[in-house]
Design brief:
304 residues, seven-stranded mixed beta sheet, 9 strands, 47% helix
């Protein structure tokens, strides 16, 4: 009941305001985050310190402050996302190389779109069906709050996207026409022993292996997309084909490729990643070398 009151009486009416007004609220949020409401500050500081060990303490503090500046805008843009029109969304998401998607469409093969929680991924999710010339799907885990899960899914789907539960994703690939499937692959995996371990931002990191597994199981072209912030409220999207023949790549290469590209983006715009997430909460397995060998053998037995 309280969730419904909050949504209909506060959040959705706020989303109807123009962005220039909403950004004044973002300015206030930023001041609150760096003073009396330090949201997950210890997590943010720890993540940045470990990811940029060669940066001075003073400069790390600048990155923390920059993150909260970006995070405040991200929250406000997320609220705006509930009611933003397709026309305005397309104006604020510039596609720098649409020919990549057009060429893949002509080849008639389904694609896997992969990226991370960098810059405004929510606007891309909502606009995916109008950006990519394929029937569009997005894979995600449902929220614990049923009301908010239903409302956010409804809002994300209003321009043609279909949101699919991560536990039921295989149903998409029974369709006989090409589709695009969106995956954000930088969450902390639930099980470190079922993850692909690699160095990421100077730390041993468990990576979700779903991108490489799905690409091989369903023979998907894989496209990485980078969202760059041009200015407040405006972003550019650049596509990069990672492979059109996933089974031609050795084990692990595809995962290493998309994670390294995300890392490059973070280093270029370090304040604009979601540092408040506990991505390094899994312990490194004591038998990591043996685990890696077993994972590689299992993968190759199944797909090679």
């Amino acid at each position: 009941m309280m969730s419904a009151i909050l949504y209909y009486c506060v959040v959705y009416p706020l989303s109807l305001l123009p962005l220039w007004i909403l950004y004044r609220i973002s300015d206030l949020l930023f001041l609150l985050f760096i003073s009396v409401l330090p949201y997950r500050k210890k997590v943010v500081q720890s993540n940045i310190e470990k990811s940029f060990p060669d940066v001075s303490t003073k400069d790390q503090a600048v990155l923390v402050r920059g993150f909260y500046r970006h995070f405040s805008d991200l929250l406000i843009e997320g609220i705006k996302n509930l009611s933003i029109s397709k026309k305005e969304l397309q104006k604020r998401l510039h596609i720098s190389n649409p020919e990549i998607m057009e060429s893949l469409q002509q080849k008639g093969k389904s694609i896997l779109l992969v990226s991370g929680h960098f810059n405004n991924w929510e606007w891309f999710i909502t606009g995916q069906a109008s950006i990519v010339p394929f029937q569009s799907f997005g894979i995600g885990m449902p929220l614990s709050n049923g009301f908010w899960d239903k409302k956010l899914t409804e809002r994300r789907q209003r321009f043609g996207l279909t949101v699919v539960n991560a536990h039921n994703y295989k149903s998409m690939f029974t369709l006989k026409h090409p589709i695009s499937v969106l995956v954000l692959s930088d969450q902390a995996p639930s099980d470190g022993r079922k993850s692909y371990w690699m160095d990421f931002l100077h730390q041993p990191t468990p990576i979700l292996f779903g991108v490489e597994q799905m690409a091989n199981e369903f023979d998907l072209s894989v496209v990485y997309f980078t969202i760059n912030k041009i200015k407040r409220g405006h972003y550019s999207v650049e596509f990069q084909i990672l492979t059109e023949e996933p089974k031609s790549l050795p084990y692990g290469v595809l995962t290493e490729k998309h994670v390294k590209l995300l890392e490059e983006s973070i280093i270029e715009q370090p304040c604009n990643w979601l540092w408040s997430h506990k991505r390094w909460k899994r312990e490194v397995p004591a038998d990591l070398d043996a685990l890696k060998a077993a994972q590689k053998s299992k993968f190759e037995d199944k797909y090679r």
